[in-house]
Amino acid sequence: MKNLMGFKILIYDLVESTFEIARRFQSVEEFTTILAKEQLRGRGRFNREWLSPRGGLWFTTLLYPRTPAHTYNILSLLSSLSVLEAIRENTGLKPNIRWPNDLYLNNKKIAGVLIESEINEEIIERSLVGIGVNVNFRLEHLPLELRDKATTLLEEYGKHVDEDTLLIEILSILKEYYEKYKGGLYSEIMKYIKKEADFISKNVLLYTRSGKIKAFIRDLDIYGNLIIEIADETLTLTPKDVEKMEVVEK
Predict the structure, then answer these.
(1) What is the number of domains present in the chain?
(2) Separation between Cα atoms, residue 236 and residue 221, nearest integer Å
(3) What's residue 1's pLDDT?
(4) Quick one: CA dihedral 64, 165, 49, 96, positive or negative?
(5) Which of 76, 107, 150, 184 sits 20 to 30 Å CA-CA off 96?
(6) Pairing mode, if any, of strands 96-98 and 7-15?
(7) What distance in Å separates the CA atoms of residue 62 and residue 3, rounded to the nearest whole number?
(8) In angstroms, rounded to a whole number, what is the distance separating the alpha carbons of residues 216 and 122?
């Protein structure tokens, strides 16, 4: 175990998934983090594969929020916001939040968040916050079909980014927003999230389990759910309703 700026980091060279390792830990200190140099079976939402070659930042952090279950999406969005601010602080690059859990830069995915929570009597008892950032590798390390859909900090920034520094920056910012979240400051957090979103007041294509939906994104509600307009109807959607979003209007 390594202690970086007060954060306990367990570092592995090669793992199936940092999520799988984190699940084994019970009653460890909050913000204990499992970090891997490479993952063989990284995953995203709806169990989609997340390629995790060497040169990326792949980790899972353990939290014990004890917050209402209906606020779970705020935790996901504030985690994305923390990664965004850390990237901007370290590189000057300006990614955007793509609902519900991704970061995009120049319309290409550069980072993602996956959260798995244990809920008891409508209270989030424990959360595993999985974060993946494409940092120091070239696009040739990705399959051909992903090279026009994803990017890395090395490709966009043009030089190496110190991974330890970026990790500590992410965790430090995450801790600040997390304390606000536990304190119920949802409106304040959502204000920052909306400022960094690239989809509000845009036409989008939503991929749902029942098919594709063309919609206009009116806003996010206080819990981070989508408020959309379809024809003359206004609907609210949660992350469980939507597999993926594409912005079709710049």
Answers:
(1) 2
(2) 8
(3) 73
(4) positive
(5) 184
(6) unpaired
(7) 15
(8) 31
Of the candidates 148, 120, 126, 112, which has an alpha carbon nearest to the alpha carbon of residue 39? 112
Residue 66's CB is within 10 A of a number of other CB atoms, namely 11
Range of the domain at 221: 203-247
Tell me, yes or no, whether 28 and 102 share the same domain: yes
Q: What is the mean pLDDT of residues 72-98?
A: 97
**Distance of alpha carbon 195 from alpha carbon 190, whole angstroms:** 8
d(CA 161, CA 172) in angstroms, rounded, equals: 17
CB distance 106 to 97 below 8 Å:
no
pTM over 0.70? The answer is yes
3-state secondary structure of 151: coil
Residues 105 and 185 in one domain: yes
d(CA 67, CA 1): 29
CATH code of 221's domain: 2.30.30.100
Handedness of CA 224, 104, 131, 147 (dihedral sign): positive
Spatial distance between the Cα atoms of 120 and 132, rounded to a whole number of angstroms:
27
Residues 220 and 99 placed together within one structural domain of the fold: no
- Tell me which residue has tokens 């957090």: 189
> pLDDT tens, 41-63?
766 554 566 678 899 999 999 99
